[in-house]
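debug: dumping io for the single-chain case to check the tokenizer round-trip. Nothing else runs in this session.
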Amino acid sequence: MKKTVLILVTLVGLASQAQEQKAQVPQISVSGEGKIKVAPDQAVINVGFQNSGKDSKEVKSLNDEVVDKVIKFLKKMGIPATDYKTNNVSLYKSYDYEKKKNNFQANQSLTITLKDLSKYDELMMGLNDAGVNTISGVEFKSSKMEDYEREARKKAILDARQKAQDYVSVLGQKVGKALLITDNSQAYVPQPMFKGAYAMAADSAGSRETLAIGELEINTNVSVTFALE
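debug: decoded output
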């Protein structure tokens, strides 16, 4: 029994000693940033339209007419059916207390992905002519976003390693293998850095530039712990 207790005590002691030795491994923790700036080549446009009136069937019919015109226009522009979709459809009744009567309003919204930004003005003017009266947002993207994100992650690791080397070079030590890597990047959709404003209307005297897409900035942040040799 005494031998068993002695063996257990010895094993616990060795385990504790091993943990202490492991904790004493020289190491350095640094952060790294990878930043990529790219020009967007796509736009995601959210548009909508609404009609109101005394009769629910009438306002719904008016909205259906707009939908038909919009879809036919998008097809005419050569935009694939997979690049536009209906987001919301609503029909509701409200009461006008001053006039003491009911009103109905029909709403519908669409999201359109435009993969050729040179057609932006044509698209916006055509949608306006078809009956679209609301533009709730334009988001710019890149078709190669995943490739750029991978590049940004690699740059972040290289940046972290360079920082570690800068710190330990004056100590006569070298940076060893990575012991821990933590991705601190926040999930978000990069927004363009605008260099100007854009407008919907085209000049009656001729075409003009109405869209300033700026650049997309993709940021990746990591924390890395390196062993020191």
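debug: round-trip ok. Strands lie at 27-38, 42-53, 84-96, 101-114, 134-141, 175-183, 192-193, 215-228.
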